[in-house]
Amino acid sequence: MDRRHRGVRRRRAGVGRVRRGQDARPLRGGAGGRRIDGDRARDRGLCVQSEDIMARNDVRYDAFRRITGESEPKEPKMNPPRSGDEQRLEAKWPDRRDDRVTRLFVGTYASREGAVSRTEGSVQSWMVDPETGVLVQHSETEIGIEAGYLALTPDRRALVVVDERKTDGRGPVGRPAAVLSLGLADDGLTLSRTARQPALGPFPTYVSLHPRGVAAVVASHGSFEHVERVVRGENGYDVEYTYDDSTVAVYPLAPDGTLQQASDVVVLEGHGVDPHRSAQAGGHPQATAHAHSAQFDPSGEFVIVCDKGTDRILVYRLCEDLTLALTSTFVAPAGSAPRHPAFHPSRPLVFVSDELASTVSSYRFHTDSGTLVHMATVSSLAPYASRSSEPADIQVDPSGRYVVVNNRGQDSLVSFAIADDGTVEYAHSVQLAESVHPGLAARSFRFDVTGRWLFVADRPANAIITLEFDPGSGSMREVSRAAIADPAFVLPC
């Protein structure tokens, strides 16, 4: 969580009655935070047994025809004049739908000083040449959000995006944090807003969709800023500190991908060792719970939550009524701050980036019980000197041979070979643009479905970098870059 605003937390009205401790509704497998019971979505058509909607639509790339000149739809907002490579790409783009062609959605923040002027973030749609990795922008959807994380429904009909913010509470009060669904037009690229729901926690940082598209889970991190209160106890007056709630919320999705009212919210509690050594603004990364991710496992039965504030990895089971039941808790080493998980595509393995320890941890995942067994931990850093660093995103390449992590501060992208026993070993690294501090470094990266292209949202460079990835050696080399102001998240599909 890198874009924290100052401000005092106030509980949202109308969310529901808060229950704590022994008064909380029992969770199967133990307590995993207090529960907020609001109006629940009871439509059984949205539960796990609902009709499978994983079949992909026959999406036709009308935008490709526009590039070749056969049709001329309404002109979208485009980038400044394109390079010679991009002009040549337009001339050679095939006049047919090509399943190899990748679409790329990019979430952006409001621009910083020195970048292209923009007061709010947006979601941009791009096309990728399957032969060269060159990007061509199709359109930009300016819907007034800080688009920090995106997810695509399995049928490719809608995007779900988090609006990563917190109302400042002073002067003209801004909008609270939200989660939105965006419908995709027949061209598979043009977006329009279909629903907006409250995030039920400040600074939502992560969204994951059920493999059958029946629900979304959202992790809200909260800010680092504390509120100081004067209290009177048995020994007289004293001072206590309170912090934002960090939550995990479940949102049912309609068959067309439209976001519905939340069906469940879990508020995480506790704190870590609070090492006061993060380079991020505020400097108190473990004074309270901070859920930085909530990821469905490939089956959709479980949700893995990385709470970097308490050094815990929580595993919840998704119930039929789209509520969460805690099944297991793994306590990571003190001060490690697990941030993001990445599932292996074909083996019961999970790899986790540990933000404050600058490590990558390997786990075996028991798919019947939802428990994690730690196997090994290695440094996430490239083997050269660096300043304070914090790993962020982590991905496994589609071949399942390598896991890749980016280090903010060292500003590196590092690949690790995955051994037969699930442990990892350093393979290769590339340097990204230098950041002012880890909170403003490259935030996310993703592989395309073929595994050939690796797209990096390089914030300090104000660009999306296309790297060609070698699944034989784990090496990466830059082949293209596209100018984008303050890119936060990339989603190829």
UniProtKB/TrEMBL annotation:
Ranges of biased composition (kind: Basic residues): 1-19
Segments of this protein annotated with the region Disordered: 1-39, 66-91
Family: Belongs to the cycloisomerase 2 family.
UniProt xrefs under PANTHER family: 6-PHOSPHOGLUCONOLACTONASE (PTHR30344:SF1), 6-PHOSPHOGLUCONOLACTONASE-RELATED (PTHR30344)
Protein name, per record: Beta-propeller fold lactonase family protein
Superkingdom of origin organism: Bacteria
SUPFAM superfamilies cross-referenced by the UniProt entry: 3-carboxy-cis,cis-mucoante lactonizing enzyme
Organism: Demequina capsici
Molecular function terms, GO-annotated: 6-phosphogluconolactonase activity
Pfam families in the cross-refs: Lactonase (PF10282)
